[in-house]
Design brief:
Blueprint lengths: L2 E14 L2 E14 L3 E5 L6 H9 L6 E10 L2 E2 L5 H7 L4 E4 L3 H4 L6 H12 L4 H14 L5 H4 L9 H13 L5 E5 L7 H18 L2 E5 L3 H7 L2 E6 L2 E7 H6 L4 H8 L46 E3 L1 E5 L2 E4 L7 E3 L3
Parallel strand pairs: 3-8, 3-9, 6-7, 7-8
Antiparallel strand pairs: 1-2, 1-4, 4-5, 9-10, 10-13, 11-14, 12-13
């Protein structure tokens, strides 16, 4: 299959009173047509910044300092905003984390879905409204003809999230980025939204990036997975390989912290000791070394390990697998 999206060596930083603070460094992955990629990690590890970098939606003080993002062979880094606006929504759709803050409370749901359709498609307002109703019906929204006339505050959390999915899919994008699409939803509604996304992905053959901290969702939804820690990719592989053959100490620790249905052991779940380091703190070496039971003095505290291949399409950033590293400039 052909590669649709290629992210290579991205470094995104934000300008602060202390200068440019790196949020993600050396982030790379590829997406083939129809593939579902999961990006996982703790809060603050750079998952959302990665998606915002792909969409070129960084805040005014954010900047991609290094790397390349190619969509269908076209370079997105440095692309004028006028050209990028034609890609957002039309070729690359996004579902943001919190629908109540992502939807504009001053406009009806229908107006917000129609905005993208009118911007990217050659249709009149009546046709755009018909498409809005159709896409709401497709995502399982009850009474879609009435919902298009309602404001976000008149909908339940699950209905708002369905509206966000409908908005993202309104122009049939080639790539869908779903950033924590089930945040703040109850478990029943979460299951419904995930089932909906899986059905739509299968029906439309859509390429998807699913950003989450929930490894159970990754196991259910994804073909491949990227694990991030403090702005760097620490492990990447096919989803089955990651769950049955994890290699990085951080990945193993994440998996050990998940309760398993049917387990009869009375042992307490393991917690990852320590906390994610303060990104403002000046540190050297592997960012996970202070929480790792396998850290090597004189190596892990001085250098950042390079990504190393440990199998077919399976890479790990750890000195347990290679002594190759790079000077840490943090």
């Amino acid at each position: 299959m052909s590669i649709l999206l290629e992210v290579a060596g991205i470094k995104t930083s934000f300008f602060t009173t202390r200068g440019y603070l790196p949020a993600i460094e050396d982030v790379s992955f590829t997406l083939e047509k129809g593939e579902v990629l999961g990006i996982v990690g703790e809060s603050g590890c750079g998952k959302s910044v990665t998606s915002l970098s792909v969409m070129q939606l960084l805040a005014a003080n954010g900047k991609i300092q290094e790397g390349s993002i190619r969509f269908d062979g076209r370079e997105l880094v440095g692309l004028p905003d006028s050209a990028m606006r034609k890609i957002r929504g039309n070729d690359i759709g996004v579902i943001f984390q919190e629908p109540m803050t992502s939807l504009n409370p001053s406009y009806t749901v229908g107006d917000q879905i129609m905005e993208a359709i009118l911007l990217h498609q050659t249709v009149n307002k009546r046709e755009a409204e018909e498409r809005a109703v159709d896409i709401l019906e497709r995502v399982g929204m009850p009474n879609p003809a009435q919902v298009v006339k309602r404001y976000p505050h008149e909908l339940s959390g699950g209905m708002r999230q369905r509206a966000m999915v409908a908005m993202a899919l309104s122009c049939s994008p080639a790539v869908l980025i779903a950033d924590e699409p089930t945040t703040a939803l109850d478990v029943t509604t979460e299951a419904q939204i995930l089932d909906l996304m899986r059905e739509l992905q299968a029906d439309m053959g859509m390429t998807t990036i699913l950003i989450t901290h929930n490894l159970g969702v990754v196991a259910q939804m994804c073909d491949s997975v990227v694990v991030m820690y403090l702005g760097r990719v620490v492990e990447a592989s096919a989803v089955d390989d990651l769950f049955y053959n994890p290699q990085h100490p951080y990945t193993k620790a994440l998996l050990r912290s998940i309760p398993h249905i049917g387990s009869r052991t009375k042992a307490r779940l393991e917690a990852i000791r320590g906390v994610v380091p303060d990104p403002y703190a000046s540190t050297t070496g592997c960012p996970f070394r202070t929480r790792c039971d396998f850290a090597k003095p004189g190596l892990c505290d001085l250098y950042v390990p390079a990504l190393t291949s440990v199998g077919p399409d399976h890479t790990v950033r750890c000195f347990l697998f290679s002594d190759e590293g790079e000077d840490d400039e943090a």
